[in-house]
Design brief:
The complex is a heterotrimer of chains A (about 500), B (about 325) and C (about 170).
Chain A: H1 2-12, H2 15-33, H3 39-46, H4 55-80, H5 89-100, H6 104-129, H7 133-139, H8 142-159, H9 164-178, E1 181-183, E2 188-190, H10 196-199, H11 204-223, H12 231-236, H13 239-248, H14 250-264, H15 270-285, H16 298-313, H17 315-321, H18 327-338, H19 347-350, H20 352-375, H21 377-381, H22 388-405, H23 411-429, H24 433-456, H25 463-466, H26 468-497
Antiparallel strand pairs in A: 1-2
Helix pairs in contact in A: 1-20, 2-4, 2-20, 3-4, 3-18, 4-5, 4-6, 4-16, 4-18, 4-20, 5-6, 5-16, 6-13, 6-14, 6-16, 6-20, 8-9, 8-15, 8-24, 8-26, 9-24, 11-22, 11-23, 11-24, 14-15, 14-16, 15-16, 22-23
Chain B: H1 6-16, E1 39-43, H2 52-64, E2 72-76, H3 83-91, E3 98-104, H4 106-114, E4 125-129, E5 134-140, H5 149-158, E6 161-164, H6 171-183, E7 187-190, H7 196-205, E8 210-214, H8 215-223, E9 228-232, H9 245-248, E10 257-264, H10 270-285, H11 287-296, H12 308-326
Parallel strand pairs in B: 1-2, 1-3, 6-7, 6-8
Antiparallel strand pairs in B: 3-10, 4-10, 5-8, 5-9, 5-10
Chain C: E1 3-4, E2 7-8, H1 9-29, H2 41-63, H3 68-77, H4 94-114, H5 116-131, H6 136-157
Antiparallel strand pairs in C: 1-2
Helix pairs in contact in C: 1-2, 2-3, 4-5, 5-6
The chains are: A mainly alpha (about 500), B alpha/beta (about 325), C mainly alpha (about 170).
Chain lengths: ~500, ~325, ~170
């Protein structure tokens, strides 16, 4: 085993492979930063280039791209509230407020080290899991996926305790949007009005660009000034401080990475949910949950650690059985096929060295991208000082074109505009966009897996309790619902018994 | 993969696409002049999907066999479950600069669902298939009680047999419906899985009794010993010990096929059609392409040049015959 | 400013918006009949969620009023909303906000009608020069650089066919 790990690593040190690793890293960084583009587009663009390469070089390139994308995305998420990729949207929540306080550099620094550490922890976890990859994939079937989706929804809606009603509203709204489109469970088009564009449902990346980037640009254009109020801090705080912040919160890093690893291995649920869940759970575990959303550095560390951890574990179903966990993985599979590697059970047997090479490439790229990000912190943070009169048209233009570029559908632009309006209203009236996004992503998964479970069990709900994994998930979900309610009830009783101050929820 | 030859590098660089976007030039090329500029090859799947690798391997090869040196650029149009790609292809100018990959018979189901406002398959220009089509096989978990078709029939008497599949817009769904009808089985389809690997794994896991898949898809699973075949729909089974359509006594099963068709918009001039067919034909026999197919395990049997119309007629007839079953 | 049950109309807007959306959604959801599986399968989830949403929206609506029920609901279910102060420290007239939103819709519509490569410079220039009253040279040069950058990145490097508007074939 160890010698294969080593061969994988050494294979990367060859000049060709190394060159392509670095190229991939820079491409990933750039593509990650621009909203609408991302790992999927980058890989798809690079596939033709890899056509004549040796498999190792091609995998180095792919790993380089995939490892660097999250870092690129976090930069624009933090500085401009514009998530470069969907999972980076979680970093907007606290990263952008930090940028507004002039601490953009600090946030990017923290994100960089969280990225690097998360990636490393994720790699270690994946290396440990690969030997049992097939068993792991076989454990998770439709009942487990349904319960995981429900669990994800419960986690994010129960965290904002002071905003329970409006979060649930946002979540329900997100679920309603999630059901738009053709459902291959029932064979019916829903809420599409015969429109081909809506056949695929609400396209996620354009919707996110609208909800976060455009909404924020609307807000900025109304407010005026520049992103950051505090020009002094922007010039002073730099990379070292940011890096150190992460080491102060190692617990958050580890928790985030583990969540990323676990959630990332679930096909179709992937990065966005992983980062948002990591954010939510960190908030829940914090002694100071109200500080989240206002510039708590842990709100940046948690999701960023999760994103990179998930990159490695997304490979598990992909490599074990050829089941792509995400669009990026699907493209990656195409790359493998192009190079004569048929994904499937044989992959893990015949091409072990290449696989470990890929995993090393992912990790190396992740760390390198973090360093590049750190180096660029000061110049990048200057963006927050730019006047909105110039900044807004630029960001809006790039974001809209990026939204179009996702799948070359002009309707994306309209969707982005509408979601921008809705997102702005949600900012104005204080509804949680986080819950909306998670609901939008998990809705279809939950519905599809529920009906598949019913078909498998012939309509009996016992299937959710029969298998041990689903039973465990069920218990966890129930306790997450009951626990806060109990806490609220007990807390209120204590308060009533105590000083008699007005009980304003927990 | 063979070493990088000069010719391949040129094709490679071209395909890499770092040249600037050329403005649209004149639309009417003289017959001898085709092709004058880059050709777009529409893939109605996402990158990495079903057809994607076929098109991406064929394109550089086709470039070698065109009269002039132009690039063939694969373009993924996954929206609408593939319907948008087909619609775009249908509406493009028939000047030979847009061609597309069409999954048959999946496209027929899509046409039923989307209505003929988007595209009319019978009007498109059919070029050729990319190597022979594939038949299906019934796959079961290694520890399953089902050994052969008789076991399936026996089970069907007691309860509906569960097949795992993708959704009704997919080929495996149609294949199951038709096969069940031919075999006389009572089946229930657990649909909604996200791809062939997904539903094969579902069968291994025990979600369903069995599934159908093409032999190319199954090759990796078979060699790893993670699945078993109950039957193959080939006229003659390529896997020892597995009954085929002939031995079951139902040769009709081998008509259930997936074809990888290359098509062009309606009204393509004949001379351009011939140039393209020649390029496809030679590309399919190109040694690099053949060796790739071998490595990946695809059944690769080059067909007669320009067989598009013949194949489509057979497929259309097949779909007409089984339409009511498939759409029920 | 008219107040309904103690609150100005503007504070009810989101709840009202959601309410209208949910009612329409519910109507549509109940009309879908599944083609495979049970007949109700197509409407079970959307319908169920919509009903829950209906209840939540009504609660939200009431909680926004200043009646005693409303205040109680707000305190129990959404206490963070009690200090309904100006958003993020910025107090802005509604008109200005609507105009900001309309600029975005306008840009999107412009892209749709005349295509991307024309819409971007027009939007950027008009926004900087006429809306923000920036000097001509500054607005023009930023616009030029922006358009060039977009063309280089998306058009040249990515070879994307820019959508050309409804008057041209794509």
């Amino acid at each position: 085993m160890l010698d294969i790990w080593l061969s994988g690593f050494l294979g990367l040190l060859e000049p060709t492979a190394l060159t392509f690793l670095v190229i991939g890293m820079f491409v990933g960084l750039a593509f990650g930063a621009i909203p609408g583009l991302g790992g999927t587009t980058a890989l798809a663009l690079l596939i033709p280039i890899t056509y004549g390469l040796e498999p190792f070089a091609a995998l180095a390139l792919a790993g380089g791209v995939m490892g660097a994308v999250p870092m690129g995305g976090s930069i624009t998420a933090i500085l401009l509230n514009t998530p470069g990729t969907a999972p980076n949207a979680a970093a907007c929540l606290d990263g952008y407020p930090l940028a507004q306080q002039g601490k953009g550099g600090l946030a990017i620094g923290a994100s960089a080290s969280a990225n690097a550490l998360g990636g490393i922890i994720g790699t270690i976890s994946v290396l440990l899991v690969i030997p049992i990859a097939r068993e792991v994939v076989l454990i998770f079937g439709p009942p487990e996926f349904f319960l995981l989706a429900v669990l994800g929804l419960v986690v994010v809606s129960t965290t904002s305790r002071g905003q329970m009603l409006r979060s649930l509203l946002a979540g329900a709204f997100g679920l309603m949007l999630a059901f738009v489109g053709y459902s291959n469970v029932s064979g019916v088009e829903r809420f599409t009005f015969g429109n081909t564009y809506l056949w695929d449902g609400i396209h996620l990346v354009p919707a996110l660009i609208g909800l976060f980037a455009i909404a924020e640009m609307i807000h900025l254009s109304v407010k005026g000034g520049s992103v950051s109020h505090d020009s002094k801090n922007v010039k002073v705080i730099g990379m070292r401080q940011g890096m150190m912040e992460t080491f102060n919160h190692m617990g958050t890093v580890v928790r985030g990475s583990l969540i990323g690893t676990i959630v990332g291995a679930v096909p179709g649920v992937g990065g966005t949910v992983a980062s948002f869940m990591s954010y939510s759970m960190t908030m829940q575990a914090s002694k100071n949950p109200d500080s989240f959303g206002k510039g708590n550095i842990q709100g940046v560390i948690a999701p960023e650690a999760a994103i990179n951890a998930k990159d490695g574990s997304m490979l598990i179903p992909t490599l074990a059985f050829g089941i792509p966990g995400s669009a990026e993985m699907a493209v990656f599979l195409g790359l493998l096929v192009l190079h004569g590697m048929q994904p499937g059970p044989l992959m893990l047997i015949d091409h072990q060295v290449e696989i470990y090479g890929l995993i090393w490439a992912l990790t190396a790229s992740c760390v390198m991208a973090a360093f590049v990000g750190l180096l660029l912190v000061r110049p990048l943070a200057m963006v927050t000082l730019l006047d909105v009169k110039i900044l807004v048209p630029i960001v809006v233009s790039v974001a809209m074109v990026g939204s179009y570029a996702v799948d070359l559908a002009i309707e994306n632009v309209i969707l982005t505009a509408i979601m921008g309006g809705i997102g702005y209203m949600m900012i104005r009236y204080d509804y949680s966009r986080l819950v909306l996004v998670v609901a939008l992503v998990l809705g279809p998964t939950a519905e599809r897996n529920y009906f598949q479970s019913m078909l498998i069990s012939d309509g009996s709900w016992s299937i959710f309790f029969e298998r041990i994994p689903s039973l465990i998930l069920f218990v966890i979900t129930i306790s997450l619902i009951v626990y806060p309610i109990m806490g609220a009830l007990l807390g209120r009783r204590k308060k009533q018994e105590g000083s008699g101050a007005s009980g304003a929820g927990s | 993969m063979t070493k990088l030859t000069r010719r391949k590098f040129a094709a490679l660089a071209g395909a890499a696409g770092f040249t600037l976007v050329a403005p649209a030039c004149s639309r009417n090329d003289t017959e001898a002049g085709y092709p004058q500029r880059d050709i777009t090859f529409i893939i109605p799947n996402g990158p990495g999907g079903n057809f994607d690798s076929f098109v991406r391997v064929i394109s550089p090869a086709m470039q070698k066999y065109l009269p002039n040196e132009v690039n063939i650029i694969p373009l993924n149009v996954p929206a609408g479950g593939g319907g948008k790609g087909l619609a775009d292809l249908y509406r493009s100018r028939p000047d030979g600069y847009t061609i597309g990959a069409v999954n048959v018979p999946g496209a027929f189901t899509l046409q039923e669902q989307m209505g003929t406002n988007s595209f009319v398959l019978s009007e498109m220009t059919w070029l050729s298939t990319i190597a022979g089509g594939e038949t299906y096989a019934i796959v079961v978990a290694p520890d399953s009680n089902i050994q052969n078709v008789d076991d399936l029939r026996a089970l069907s008497q007691q309860r509906p047999i569960k097949f795992a599949s993708t959704g009704p817009e997919g080929t495996s769904y149609a294949a199951i419906k038709v096969a069940s009808e031919i075999l006389g089985l009572d089946t229930q389809i657990i649909s909604g899985y996200r791809g062939s690997s997904d539903y094969i794994v579902a069968t291994i896991r025990g979600d369903s009794d069995c599934a159908v898949a093409t032999l190319s898809t199954l090759r990796s699973f078979l060699e790893a010993g993670t699945v078993r075949l109950a039957a193959s729909f080939e006229p003659e089974s390529s896997i020892p010990g597995v009954p085929d359509a002939t031995s079951i006594g139902l040769p009709e099963l081998s008509q259930i096929r997936v074809e990888r068709m290359v098509a062009a918009p309606p009204g393509l001039p004949d001379d351009i059609k011939q140039v393209l067919n020649a390029a496809i034909d030679q590309a399919v026999r190109d040694p690099d392409v053949v060796s790739w197919a071998e490595e990946v395990g695809h059944k690769w049997i080059p067909q007669a040049r320009g067989n598009g119309d013949t194949v489509m007629q057979a497929q259309a007839a097949f779909f007409e015959k089984w339409k009511s079953v498939i759409l029920s | 400013m008219n107040k309904y049950f103690g609150s100005p109309l503007i504070e009810y807007l989101p709840a009202l918006g959601f309410l209208v959306f949910t009612i329409i959604y519910l109507g549509l959801a109940n009309s879908y009949v599944a083609v495979i599986g049970g007949e109700d399968d197509a409407r079970a989830f959307p319908s169920g969620v919509a009903w829950v949403m209906l209840i939540l929206t009504l609660l939200d609506l009431v909680s926004r009023s200043k009646t005693s029920t409303g205040k109680m609901l707000l305190r129990v279910l959404n206490p963070a909303g009690q200090d309904q102060g100006p958003v993020r420290g910025v107090k802005v007239p509604p008109g200005k906000q609507i105009i900001a939103i309309l600029w975005i819709f306008g840009f999107a519509a412009l892209m749709f009608v005349i295509g991307i490569l024309f819409a971007v410079p027009i939007y950027a220039f008009v926004s900087m020069r006429f809306r923000s009253k920036l000097p001509f040279v500054l607005a023009a040069s930023v616009t030029a650089l922006l358009t060039l950058a977009i063309w280089l990145l998306f058009g040249a490097a990515l070879r994307i066919n820019f959508y050309q508007g409804i008057f041209f074939e794509f």
